[in-house]
Structure to design on (368 residues):
C-alpha cells in the first residue's frame, strides 16, 4: 500500500487519543480536543461499562448522543469527528480502550461506568513468561468477539472506519508482567526479549487481520501507531536495545508509523526515533527540545500533548505564551488537548481553539 505521508491526532468521543491519515491541508496549529468518559457520563448519563465495549449497537446509540452534544456545545468545530466530510459513523474507535492486546492474552479487564477500562493486576509468573506463545487468534475468544463486532459494524455502516488502540510493546508487556518487567530487562534480558517479541507478533497479526477486514469493507488503513507512554521509565539505551528494533519493524511492515509519547519530555529518545522511517507522526510534551524535534522530523507531522491540567489551571495569557512558543519552535503541528475532565468551562475550550487559529495563522503568514 502507498505510504500515507503524515498522520494527525484523532480523538473520537469518549475514546483515548489515536491517529488518522492527514488530509494534507491541516492548520499550522491544529487543535484536537478530547473529553474523558466521565465528562460524557456526568453530562449525558452514559454508562461506559462492559456493555459499551461489547455491544456495538449500544455503543452506536451513545456515540450519536455524544456527537450531538458536541455539535450543540462546539458548533462548526471538528471536535469528535474523524473528518468533517465523512458520513460513515466510527463505531470502532474506543472499543476496549487501551486493553485489547492484554485482553487477547487473557488479562482480566475491569470496566467502569465513568472511565476507560483498565487491566487487573494479574501478572504472568516467570515460568508463564518463559513458555509464553502468541495466542492462536482463530481460537482466541476475546479476539473473535472483537471481530464479530467488526462484522456487525460492516453490516450496519457498510465501511468499517476507525481504529483499535494497539498501545506499544512496552505498555502491553507491562500489562502482562507488571513492574517485574523492569527487573527482567536487567536481570533476565532473555525473558524480557521473549515477552516483547510475543507481544510484538500479536500486535502485528491482530492489526493485519483487522486491516484486511476493513479493506474488504472499502476502508484502507495503511499505517500503524504505537503508544510509548512508559518509555520514560527506561533509559534511552534500554529503549534502543529492546524496543527500538521493534518500532522500526512496525514502520517497515505497515508502511508508516506514528509514535505517541504522552506529555513527557521526549529528549532522550529523539535521536533513536529519527532513525525510524517512514515516520508519519510524533508527539511529546512542551518541555521537550522542540527546536531539535523540528530539525530531526522535518517531514513528520509533529504534535504537542497539552495537558488537561494546563488547559484548566493556566490563565489565557499563559496559554497564549505556550502556544506562541510551540508555533515558533515546533510548528506546524497538532495541539492535542486530550482527557479534558468535567469542570473545564466550554468558554475556555472555545478560547483555546480561537488562540490556536489566530496564532497559527499569524505564524503561517510570517513563514510565507
Amino acid at each position: 500500500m502507498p505510504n500515507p505521508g503524515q498522520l494527525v491526532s484523532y480523538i473520537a468521543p469518549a475514546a483515548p487519543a489515536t491517529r488518522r491519515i492527514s488530509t494534507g491541508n491541516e492548520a499550522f496549529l491544529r487543535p484536537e480536543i478530547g473529553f474523558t468518559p466521565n465528562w460524557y457520563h456526568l453530562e449525558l448519563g452514559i454508562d461506559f461499562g462492559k456493555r459499551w465495549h461489547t455491544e456495538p449497537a449500544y455503543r452506536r446509540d451513545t456515540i450519536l448522543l455524544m456527537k450531538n452534544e458536541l455539535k450543540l456545545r462546539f458548533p462548526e468545530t471538528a471536535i469528535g469527528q474523524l473528518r468533517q466530510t465523512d458520513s460513515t459513523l466510527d463505531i470502532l474507535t474506543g472499543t476496549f480502550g487501551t486493553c485489547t492486546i492484554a485482553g487477547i492474552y487473557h488479562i482480566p479487564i475491569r470496566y467502569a461506568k465513568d472511565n476507560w477500562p483498565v487491566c487487573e493486576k494479574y501478572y504472568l509468573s516467570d515460568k508463564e513468561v518463559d513458555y509464553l506463545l502468541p495466542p492462536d487468534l482463530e481460537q482466541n475468544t476475546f479476539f473473535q468477539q472483537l471481530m464479530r463486532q467488526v462484522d456487525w459494524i460492516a453490516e450496519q455502516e457498510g465501511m468499517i472506519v476507525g481504529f483499535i488502540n494497539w498501545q506499544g510493546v512496552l505498555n502491553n508487556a507491562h500489562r502482562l508482567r507488571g513492574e517485574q518487567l523492569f527487573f527482567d530487562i536487567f536481570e533476565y534480558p532473555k525473558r524480557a526479549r521473549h515477552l516483547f517479541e510475543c507481544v510484538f507478533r500479536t500486535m502485528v497479526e491482530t492489526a493485519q487481520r483487522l486491516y484486511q477486514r476493513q479493506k474488504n469493507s472499502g476502508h484502507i488503513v495503511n499505517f500503524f501507531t504505537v503508544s510509548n507512554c512508559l518509555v520514560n521509565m527506561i533509559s534511552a539505551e534500554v529503549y534502543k536495545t529492546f524496543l527500538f528494533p521493534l518500532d522500526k519493524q512496525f514502520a517497515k511492515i505497515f508502511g508508516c508509523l506514528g509514535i505517541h509519547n504522552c506529555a513527557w519530555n521526549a529528549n532522550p529518545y529523539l535521536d533513536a526515533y529519527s532513525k525510524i522511517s517512514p515516520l508519519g507522526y510524533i508527539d511529546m510534551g512542551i518541555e521537550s527540545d522542540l527546536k531539535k524535534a523540528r530539525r530531526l522530523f522535518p517531514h513528520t507531522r509533529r504534535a504537542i500533548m497539552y495537558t488537561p491540567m494546563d488547559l484548566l489551571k493556566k490563565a489565557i495569557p499563559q496559554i497564549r505564551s505556550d502556544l506562541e512558543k510551540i508555533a515558533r519552535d515546533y510548528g506546524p503541528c497538532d495541539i492535542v488537548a486530550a482527557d479534558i475532565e468535567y469542570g473545564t468551562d466550554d468558554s475556555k475550550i472555545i478560547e483555546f481553539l480561537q488562540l490556536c487559529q489566530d496564532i497559527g495563522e499569524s505564524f503561517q503568514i510570517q513563514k510565507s
